[in-house]
Amino acid sequence: MAKSRAMERRTRVLVVEDEESFIDALTIGLEREGFDATIARDGQEALTIFHADQFDVVLLDLMLPKLSGLDVCRSMRAASDVPIIIVSAKGEEVDMVLMLEVGADDYVTKPYRLRELVARIRAVLRRRETPVPDENDEVLELGSIRMELDARRCFVGGDEIKLRKKEFALLRLLLENPGRVLTRDVLIDRVWGSDYVGDTKTLDVHIKRLRTLIEDDPKHPEHITTVRGVGYRFETTKPSP
Ligand code: CA
């Protein structure tokens, strides 16, 4: 339903960018790909336009005049769950954990190829179309993985796998956030809470065991991927060969 409505009009992108050399090429490129681009040239203007209108996705440069990209992101996120992709310049120190904490969905580094950017935009939009699991819905299904939450059973390609309590909770959390990077802190906090004792390897040990159960090749995982220095992500699509 939401899908067909979205297809009737062009996807609206708010591009927050202060570099003129980028703006023209980006606008033309996005329009050619079927998006409708609106430009904001500084952080304050971005918030003004954002609050006055409706956008499907925000492309947010990190280094901006007036307000930083992080502040803009935090402020937009407080008001809306619009997908936000942060754009950083090459060589800029980017604290990815902080970026996720302020509510960004993804990030790209300049210079990027338009094709890559468009793929990221489509990915965050697709993710938002994934229905949020209903509290009463006891089945969580993604690709070949099926979790029966009340019964606490898990199946991969129809075969049941036996999961321990924390493994089940961890896989559930990843599956409930497909395509989204979950930081180590979030995973530890949500799965273990104050139970988390011992060294920081506990999380990795659990991920490793999950991979041996659900991955075709646990050494080259296609479902649960590592985001170095940040955390883990459950992929919604297989990486291209
Ligand atoms: Ca900039």
Structure description:
The protein is of the alpha/beta class and 241 residues long. The chain folds into 2 domains: 2-129, Response regulator (Rossmann fold); 139-234, Arc Repressor Mutant, subunit A, CATH 1.10.10.10. The chain has 9 helices and 12 strands. It has helices at 2-8, 20-32, 43-52, 69-79, 96-101, 114-129, 165-176, 184-191, 201-214, and strands at 11-16, 35-40, 57-61, 84-89, 106-110, 139-142, 145-148, 153-156, 159-161, 181-183, 224-227, 231-234. A hairpin with a 4-residue loop joins strand 7 (145-148) and strand 8. The two termini are 33 Å apart. The protein binds calcium ion. Calcium ion (CA) binds next to loops.
Topology:
Layout: H1 2-8, E1 11-16, H2 20-32, E2 35-40, H3 43-52, E3 57-61, H4 69-79, E4 84-89, H5 96-101, E5 106-110, H6 114-129, E6 139-142, E7 145-148, E8 153-156, E9 159-161, H7 165-176, E10 181-183, H8 184-191, H9 201-214, E11 224-227, E12 231-234
Parallel strand pairs: 1-2, 1-3, 3-4, 4-5
Antiparallel strand pairs: 6-7, 7-8, 8-9, 10-12, 11-12
The structure holds calcium ion (CA).
Q: How many angstroms separate the termini?
A: 33 Å
Number of helices: 9
Strand residue content? 15-25%
Q: Could you state the order of secondary-structure elements as H and E?
A: HEHEHEHEHEHEEEEHEHHEE
Give me the count of strands: 12
**How are the strands of the biggest sheet laid out side by side?**
2-1-3-4-5
Computed CA radius of gyration, to the nearest angstrom:
19 Å
Low-confidence stretches: 1-7
Assembly category? single chain
Basic shape: elongated
